[in-house]
Amino acid sequence: MVTGRGRYTSDHHFDGQVAGFFVRADRAHARIVRIDVEEAKRLPGVLDVVTGADLAATGWKGAPAMAFFKGVGGSSLRVPFRTGLAQGRVRFVGEPVALVVAKTENIAQDAAELVAVEYEDLAIYVEPGDALAAGAVPLHEEYPDNLAFDYEYGNRDSTEPGFKDAAHVVRVTLHAQRISGNPMEPKSCTALYSAADDTFEICMPTQGAGDIKNSLANITGMPPEKFKIRSMDVGGGFGVRNEVYPEFLAVMLAAKRTGKPVKWLGTRSETLSGDHHGRGADLMGELALDAKGKFLALRVEWLVNLGAFCSNAGPLINTVAAPTSSAISLYDIKAIHGRHRLVFTNTTPTTAYRGAGRPNVAYLWERLIEEAAEITGIDSIKLRRRNLLRKDAFPLKTLTGSNYDSADPARLLDTALEAADWDGFKARRKAAQKKGKLRGLGLALFLEPSGGMGKEQVEVRVGSGGKLELYSQAGPSGQGHETVFPVLVSEVLGIPEDRIELRYNEPTAPKLVGVGTFGSRSLICHGAALQAAAKEIVEKGKKLAATELEVAPTDVSFDKGIYRVAGTDLSVSMKVLIEKRWEQPTHPLDTNIMFDIAFAYPSGAHIAEVEIDPDTGTSAIVNYIAADDCGNIVNHKLVEGQLHGGLMQGIGQVIGEHIAYDSDTGQLLSGTFMDYFMPKAENLSPITLIDCGVPSPFNPLGAKGAGEAGATGSVPALANAYLDALKAAGVKKLEMPYSPHRVWRAIHEARSAKGD
Fold first, then answer.
1. pLDDT band at residue 1, thresholds of 50, 70 and 90?
2. Which of 25, 97, 154, 441 could bridge to 337 as Cys pair (CB 3.0-4.6 Å)?
3. Pick from 218-227, 418-427, 449-458: least confident
4. Nearest CA to 721 among 624, 649, 656, 628?
């Protein structure tokens, strides 16, 4: 329901606030010879112009990156220094160079045009292969080969025999293009500095205030408690809201220098050029099979376009968080080896984006299987069945060190095939052909991690009027925390949901440990912690009830919100116990706990059916089936919404979304919505969602993640469907996105090659 009551960063105002506007690099790689800010400072209404030299004087460190494990030969991730504004060199178009602060945004923008920056151009590398080539100019002098990280998993030696003994070896190369997260509200930040107590109050959209505080503490050297983070409605996180962006540091320094609250609200073009991008990798896979089609061994190589710097999550999701954890998917594989090289290029940094690397894993796996079916002559469904993991194989310790909790792959496959009327597709394809259309059917199976990633602390307080207040580091960004978390507590305590309220990122909130909202971990980790806190409240309440009823605590039992004394009519409700003492500074039922939850592994089988008009290249998704194992579900409507959202973002990547750069200049070619395709409601086909949940034994709720399954399953399912349709037109290979122009061109090139 749209109520108009949402509050975003742009809606929050501090008294006396002023505006900021960024000067950004107009070239991809160059030395900064000189920055002249004097003319800009003379413009009436301008309060300050902050440059990289000003930030360097603070002594602040660079932003951290989440990859603390070792790579090939014991190597470590290389993390170049980066703070809020470019220092000495710019490395991608759109990198912030200076921040102008003025009384109004218009004045700040006018003044930004007066900042003169002299550059000395350097060599430009848009593609990772070019950046790794011999003689390439280093983006960072301390890392002369432009290689950020060389990472491997599995076992190379145990993989080789599988390929040596194979009856068939299948090889595919794929490109997963860059895409933009594009949250509803552009990147923004308002900072207020208090000289009296040396604190910052910062309003920003974030997926985890705790992580932001810790990152700011690492960067500035100030204690985490010096930062008060306000995050209201986020407008979608999608992985691009979970770190300290460089612009935030510049705004903070400007607030400190001017003594005024400084507000910056980015434009959509700044979102497309400056927000960290998703995906961006060249994928290679080799699959060895025996004569009967059994999988023997898998080899994987990724060449990852990391961008000019390491984002917080970019290195992680291209190594441990996706490829290693979900490497074997739902298939029984005897040996595996993967090598992933992360490369610096003159492009915007890449980070996690819905699915966080797992769509690439599933995309590569499912294309390998389709190619294997083509080469071996074994039906693709039979091939998958022959190699599926059995339900009784779980919990499963994998070859790459993950611990899969539960799954029923055969049930997922059978359910999806029946719902999609797989056997009836031949007739539907013939009917489409009579209309001059190409029809394709695509299947994909997947498994991915959710939850885990650290301890979560929650607190339940009795607040004003006897309402329960729930505190957690789980920042809502559209998942429905405000609905689900009170339900979990209500079910345990037996009090109405309208007497329970989720509170988040308020100045009076308790100091909690936690990592926030990403990786489909909210329900598994934060929800389970809140449920555990509610159970502890029940136990605390027995003592209060015993005092109230004048009996021993051992005589008191609890059921459905009521404490009773066996064999008597004595009783008192939890609601009464809460409301009687709410005026006290600390209520005896206030509870704070720490919870640590293992990973869970949602899985699914998705089937897409598409139709293409070969004369125009336009296409339609005519049917979509998603059979998903999300474990136990608390709120089906919210899960459906999460799956729909993920599906839409997967559809966007497959049919049109593409962050494109000019290879010669490094200029962004898709910097506005005039150039960057965004999926619309008309692109969403009829969708059938089927719950095939198998409870997870690794957490008390039995839950698994749901937020990213749609994106992970839809990319390979749709890719397989499009390529299946195009096969009839003679198109053997086509990389995403399958936009009308690309599809039309591929069809006509194939026809020309045949002489049609």
1. low
2. 154
3. 449-458
4. 624
Asked if the model's pLDDT at residue 653 lies above 60, the reply is yes
| Residue with token string 């869970």 | 600
| Farthest-apart Cα atoms in the chain, separation | 95
Give pLDDT tens digits for 485-535: 899 999 999 999 999 988 876 667 788 777 777 767 777 788 888 999 999
Contact 487, 213 (CB under 8 A): no
Please say if the pLDDT value at position 82 is more than 60. Answer: yes
- Per-residue pLDDT reduced to its tens digit, 699-745: 999 999 888 888 999 999 999 999 999 999 999 999 999 999 999 99
CB 102 within 8 A of CB 37: no
Name which of 200, 270, 121 is nearest 666 in CA terms.
121
**Pair of tokens at residue 317:** 């999701």
Residues 6+ away with beta carbon under 8 Å from 750: 729, 730, 731, 732
Mean pLDDT estimate for the chain = 92
Quickly count: other Cβ atoms within 10 Å of residue 435's Cβ: 9
Give 131-159 pLDDT, tens digit per residue. 999 999 999 999 999 999 999 999 999 99
- Cis omega before residue 740 (within 30°)? no
Q: How does strand 687-691 pair with strand 619-629?
A: parallel
Q: Which two tokens stand for residue 740?
A: 């009308």
What's the pLDDT score for residue 209? Answer: 78
CATH fold of 456-595 reads Aldehyde Oxidoreductase; domain 4 (3.30.365)
183: nearest Cα among 270, 74, 60: 270
- Residue 338: closest CA among 360, 309, 356, 369: 360
Report residue 134 as tokens.
């011999």
Question: Do 448 and 333 contact (CB within 8 A), yes or no?
Answer: no
Average pLDDT estimate for 225-237: 83
Q: What is the pLDDT of residues 589-609, one digit of tens each?
A: 999 988 888 889 999 999 999
Phi, psi of 364 (to 5 degrees): -65, -45
Distance CA 239, CA 12 (A): 23
Q: How far apart are CA 449 and CA 401, in angstroms?
A: 13
Q: What is the pLDDT of residue 151?
A: 96
Element (H, E) at 99: strand 96-102
Task: Answer whether 385's CB lies under 8 Å from 368's CB.
Answer: no
CA distance 702 to 523: 10
d(C-alpha 322, C-alpha 519), whole Å: 10
DSSP assigned state of 422: G
Structure token pair of residue 227: 């930062």
Distance, CA of 314 to CA of 80 (rounded, Å): 13
Is the alpha carbon torsion for 120, 123, 127, 132 positive or negative?
negative
CA–centroid distance for 743 within its chain: 29
What confidence score (pLDDT) does residue 418 get?
A: 98
Residue 146 and residue 343: Cα distance in Å, rounded? 6
Q: Where are the beta strands (DSSP E) in 676-733?
A: 687-691
Tokens for 207, please give them. 């997926």
φ/ψ of residue 345, rounded to 5? -135, 170
Dist CA 563 CA 567 (whole Å): 13
Q: Which residue carries 């599988």 as its tokens? A: 162
Which fold, 388-449+599-754? Aldehyde Oxidoreductase; domain 4 (3.30.365)
Evaluated on CA atoms 535, 536, 539, 541, the torsion sign reads: negative
Taking the CA atoms of 80, 85, 88 and 89 in sequence, report the sign of the dihedral they define: positive
Phi, psi torsion values for 468, nearest 5 degrees: -85, 135
Q: 183, 205 in Cβ contact below 8 A?
A: yes
| Range list of H helices, 22-155 | 38-42, 52-58, 105-112, 128-132
- List every span in the chain annotated with CATH 3.30.365.10: 388-449+599-754, 456-595
